[in-house]
C-alpha cells in the first residue's frame, strides 16, 4: 500500500515537475514533515495551556484591592497587546536571551542557553495571547451579577474562595466564545516561531522547498490543508465545550 502511494507521487513528480510531493515518496523528507508537525503540536498545546493560566491569574489580579498590582497587570496588557507578536518574539529571543545563564553542551566545550529557541517561543507567544485572555476573562467576571458575589460574601467566602468557586466558573461560561477565537489565533500565530528557527511545520516545509525547488507548490498545499485540519480540530472541540457550558438564555452555541 505504502509503496503504491510512493510510486503514485513519484510518477506525478515525473509527469508534473512543479508538483513534487517529495515528502510522500522519500522517507527522509517525510520524517522532516512529521517532526515539524509534532513540534507545532507541542508548541500549540504549551502556548494554549500557559496563556489560559496567565489569563485566569491576570483576571483575578485585576480585581485586587492593591492599586500597584492592578497597575502591573494593566502595564503587562498594554505592552503585549500594543506591540506585534513577531517583534515580541524577536525581543525575547535576541534581547532578553542575552541575559539568560548558559550551560556546557553535551560536547563539553560549547555554551548553550538554558532557554532554547522553543522555550522563548512558548514564553513570548503565551504572554502575547495571555494579555488578551486576561481581558476576555475580565469581561466574563464583570458579567457575573453583583448579587451573586454579595451572597458569597455573606456566607463567609474569602475573595479567593469566591473567585475559584463562584466567579470564575460563571465567568468562564460567558468568556468561552471570545476565548475560542483567541486560542485559534494563537495556534495560527505559532508559525511566526520560524523567525527564531524553531523547527516547526512551516520551518521544515520551507527547508524542504529550499532543498528541492520543485517541491514548493506541493509543500505549501500540504501546509495549508494541515493547518485547516489542525485549527478545525481545535475549533470543533471548543465549540462542543462552549455548547455544553452554555448559560441558558445567554446567547446561542455554535454547532
Automatic annotation (TrEMBL):
Keywords: Amino-acid transport, Cell membrane, Membrane, Transmembrane, Transmembrane helix, Transport. PROSITE patterns: ABC_TM1 (PS50928). The chain crosses the membrane at residues 37-61, 82-99, 119-137, 218-238. GO terms for molecular function: transmembrane transporter activity. Residues 37-235 form the ABC transmembrane type-1 domain. Its main location: membrane. GO terms for biological process: amino acid transport. It is a multi-pass membrane protein. The keyword Transmembrane helix applies. GO terms for cellular component: ATP-binding cassette (ABC) transporter complex. The keyword Transport applies. It is found in: Cell inner membrane; Cell membrane. Pfam families: BPD_transp_1. Belongs to the binding-protein-dependent transport system permease family. HisMQ subfamily. PANTHER family: L-CYSTINE TRANSPORT SYSTEM PERMEASE PROTEIN TCYL, MEMBRANE COMPONENT OF AMINO ACID ABC TRANSPORTER. This is Amino acid ABC transporter permease. It comes from Roseibium polysiphoniae. The lineage of its organism: Bacteria, Pseudomonadati, Pseudomonadota, Alphaproteobacteria, Hyphomicrobiales.
Amino acid at each position: 500500500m505504502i509503496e503504491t502511494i510512493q510510486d503514485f507521487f513519484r510518477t506525478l513528480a515525473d509527469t508534473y515537475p512543479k508538483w513534487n510531493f517529495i515528502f510522500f515518496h522519500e522517507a527522509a523528507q517525510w520524517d522532516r514533515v512529521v517532526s515539524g508537525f509534532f513540534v507545532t503540536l507541542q508548541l500549540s498545546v504549551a502556548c494554549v495551556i500557559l496563556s489560559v493560566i496567565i489569563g485566569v491569574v491576570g483576571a483575578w489580579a485585576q480585581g485586587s484591592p492593591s492599586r500597584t498590582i492592578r497597575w502591573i497587570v494593566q502595564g503587562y496588557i498594554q505592552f503585549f497587546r500594543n506591540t506585534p507578536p513577531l517583534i515580541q518574539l524577536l525581543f525575547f529571543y535576541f534581547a532578553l536571551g542575552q541575559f539568560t545563564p548558559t550551560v556546557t553542551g553535551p560536547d563539553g566545550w560549547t555554551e548553550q542557553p538554558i532557554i532554547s529557541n522553543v522555550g522563548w517561543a512558548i514564553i513570548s507567544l503565551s504572554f502575547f495571547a495571555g494579555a488578551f485572555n486576561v481581558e476576555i476573562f475580565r469581561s466574563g467576571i464583570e458579567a457575573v451579577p453583583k448579587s451573586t458575589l454579595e451572597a458569597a460574601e455573606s456566607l463567609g467566602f474569602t475573595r479567593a474562595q469566591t473567585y475559584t468557586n463562584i466567579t470564575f466558573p460563571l465567568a468562564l461560561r460567558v468568556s468561552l466564545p471570545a476565548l475560542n477565537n483567541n486560542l485559534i489565533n494563537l495556534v495560527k500565530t505559532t508559525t511566526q516561531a520560524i523567525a527564531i528557527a524553531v523547527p516547526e511545520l512551516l520551518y521544515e516545509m520551507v527547508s524542504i522547498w529550499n532543498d528541492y525547488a520543485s517541491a514548493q507548490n506541493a509543500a505549501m498545499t500540504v501546509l495549508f490543508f494541515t493547518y485547516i485540519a489542525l485549527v478545525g480540530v481545535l475549533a470543533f472541540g471548543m465549540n462542543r465545550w462552549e455548547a455544553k457550558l452554555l448559560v441558558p438564555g445567554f446567547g446561542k452555541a455554535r454547532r
